[in-house]
Amino acid sequence: MDGYGLRVWRRAAVVAVLSSCVIAVPAPAPQRYASASANSPESAAPPAAAPRQAQTPLELVLTDMSERTVTPRTNLTIKGHVVNRSGRPLTGVHYRFRYLPQRMSSRGQLAQAAKWNVGSLPGLTAPKPLGNGTVPAGNTPVPWQLTVRAGNLGLRDFGAYPIGVEFFNAAGQQLAGQVTFMVWRPPTGRYQRTSIGWVWPVTDRTRRTTDHSFLDDGLDRELAPTGRLGGVVTAAEKTGTPLTWAVDPALLDDAQAMTRPYTVRPPHRDPAGRPASQNARTWLDRFKKTSAGDPYFVLPYADVDAEALVRNGMGRQLEISYKHMDLARQVLGRPPAAKVGWPAEGAASTRTLGRMAQLGTESFLMSSALFQPAQTTFTPGSPTTVRTSAGQRNVVTYDPVLSDVVSAGTRTPGTRLLAEQRFLAETAMITAELPLQGRTIVIAPARRWNPDPLFAENLLRWTQELPWLRPARVDRIAQARRREPMTFTGYPSAYQAQELGRTYLREVKRIAGRAGTFSTVFQPAAWPYERAVLRTVSGSWRGGGTRARRARAARDLFGDLLDKEIDKVRVSRRGDTVQLAGRTGRVPFTITNGLPDRTVRLQVKITSRIPARLQIGEYTRTIEVGPNESPSIDFEVESYAQGAALVDIELLTPQGKPFRPAHTLRINTTGYGPVALLITGGSLAVLFVGVGFRAMRARRRNKMEAAGDGSPGGEPPWPDEPADPAEHPAERSADS
After folding, report:
1. CA–CA dist 361, 136 (Å, integer)
2. pLDDT in tens, 303-327
3. Cα separation of 172 and 154, whole Å?
4. Cα-flanking dihedrals φ and ψ of residue 701, to 5°?
5. pTM score, whole prediction
6. In the chain, fewer beta carbons within 10 Å around the N or the C end?
């Protein structure tokens, strides 16, 4: 290093010491800067604690590494770019390679190292100026690269090592930094390979309401070769690594529906027709061909939220979702290799697991975070058991850390590189924990995994090619006899907050009841709304927020569409008021079946609200109505009183249950019935008799008054009666 360089670095060292109280990064010793030469290792103990990187003026992106695993002969080249976000030019910018010359001792330490500030890595190489040392302000990426001779880093044992790139100015202030990992493979060393089982999810969020209406057109984009689901299939096409597919039959159902013209009907918007999707047709063909040699298992239709259904007394819907799992076999043309249940978030209570076992699930795929191993010094293997309400069942546990790592966003080169290096480091760490004992690890990416196709392809390729890994089939892991002794710790209460809520499910249950009752009128028997109901209880609606709002909108839209379907089977008349001239008559009406593809069988029930005023005669009580037919029938009425009477016409299921409100007619009668005439005649007769009797009495009274005796009513006066002597003694003595 020339004299100018020494003066710069001495000045930088002093500034770094003074600023160590401001930035939470331990400043290297001045003599270390002065004596460090290119590719010379610096040994130091790993930091006890390392802070996260703060906001920096430069945005640093690592885009490529020439070698993902290194040996003593490797010349490791790292490339990337920086963008100046400070709003002003930065001068005197240099960068260098940093590393920790000691391998990670545990997966916990590896997880911590991923959050370290790059300045915490004690090993470093000589700095390099970035171009002319000035980074202009703006959004223009400035490329960089550095090369390190791996044999000069002083690494020894096989395993994962933190490395990074640091940018700083002439004063030694850190401008940007990024920590990642590399795997060191020495020329000597023996280890048993770790078996990796991949679960490749083929699922999507709910996108349909009824079988004929889609909520949006997003699935067409995802099925495209460049889309999410297209990329998942593309990655599997390009490698021969065996994997196990987790298939939601609802996705296959949706894709099949899109191979014909379909309708997009978002909530609160007008429907729009779409032509048959070429993306859907192509994707189905590719998926069937690509997965033909791999095992698969089937999720319940729409990947329903099993835990929420069982908790809220809707186990019947879970049972129905199992019934529709057979759709996957129909589409793929072969049965599933295993009956594996994968509950939402990889977690469920023993009650729900027991219910799933009763419905046919033989083993479960669950997160290993829910199981406590007998020891905690190394990562346990995947196979274990769980006791459910239906008895002991096998469990395939998947590694939640690796599953989260591969599920992270990888659609940009920078994020893809970091995820790839973390995957390599984690798997090397697992192998190094017990180098002489092979284990089986399962990785299950998130259900709606959206990987960069190259990233997904690399994962499968490395599983087959790296010397410390080998592929495994999950269906065989599920049937393995050797089981790890682990204890199920139960269903976490935090997961319950993510489930579909009780109020939401109560409304779904009400809509499902209407749909089920209406379905019983179809001939031949059919249950066309079952899948639509299952879509409203899909686990893809979990999580609250935007998902909850979308779930409610989709549920209510399905309820509205169901009401419109029910309204197509109805009683119809030109008017609801009937004029009846005589005491009897016949009232016609029409039963309309506006369904274009279904025959309905109905019971007809006609009721007079006041039978004493109006009685109903004979009528057709059971009728079948074909698609788009409107037969007319009538019923006889007999009136017992003049005026208005109300009649209800109900359409019932063959079991006698109403499925829609009654249709009410108002019947106005102007004639008299026999009872009314009898009542009227009797009243008049009583009136006439009473009037005649009163007239006769009046005539007799008048005659008596004319005779002058003054007796009322023409009756003779009372005769005088002799007095009783006992009652009047004084009068008796006077008379004597």
Report:
1. 61
2. 999 999 999 999 999 999 999 999 9
3. 26
4. -65, -40
5. 0.81
6. C
